[in-house]
């Protein structure tokens, strides 16, 4: 039979397990900042650029790729 672990042992076991996991928080923050910057640039291009909005929409779509990657990392 297994022995019951004390609370301190359980906390230490969880802490050791988390040390070996990948922390995606910083990467998610960078991706989110990139998304915000690209989105603002795309919106500026859309509203203040020429009548051809295709380049601005492409820039916004690239920003959405950053956001989708950040969202997938949040789920993992």
Number of domains: 1
Give the overall shape, derived from the CA principal axes. Answer: rod-shaped
End-to-end separation in angstroms reads: 34 Å
Main sheet summary: none
Q: What structural class is derived from the secondary structure elements?
A: mainly alpha
Integer-rounded radius of gyration: 21 Å
Mean pLDDT: 89
- Which strand-content bin applies to the residues? under 5%
Q: Count all strands and give the number.
A: 0
The H-and-E topology, N to C, reads as: HHH
Per DSSP, the total helix count is 3
Low-confidence stretches: none
User: Helical proportion?
Assistant: over 70%
Question: How would you summarize the topology of this molecule?
Answer:
Elements: H1 7-19, H2 25-48, H3 54-75
Helix pairs in contact: 2-3
Describe the structure.
The chain is mainly α and 76 residues long. The protein is 78% helix and 0% strand. α2 runs antiparallel to α3. The longest helix is centred in the middle third of the chain and has 24 residues, at 25-48. The protein is rod-shaped, with a radius of gyration of 21 Å.
């Amino acid at each position: 039979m297994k022995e019951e672990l004390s609370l301190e042992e359980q906390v230490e076991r969880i802490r050791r397990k988390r040390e070996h996991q990948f922390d995606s928080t910083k990467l998610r923050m960078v991706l989110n900042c990139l998304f915000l910057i690209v989105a603002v640039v795309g919106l500026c291009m859309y509203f203040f650029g020429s009548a051809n909005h295709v380049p601005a929409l492409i820039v916004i779509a690239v920003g959405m790729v950053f956001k989708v990657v950040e969202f997938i990392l949040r789920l993992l």
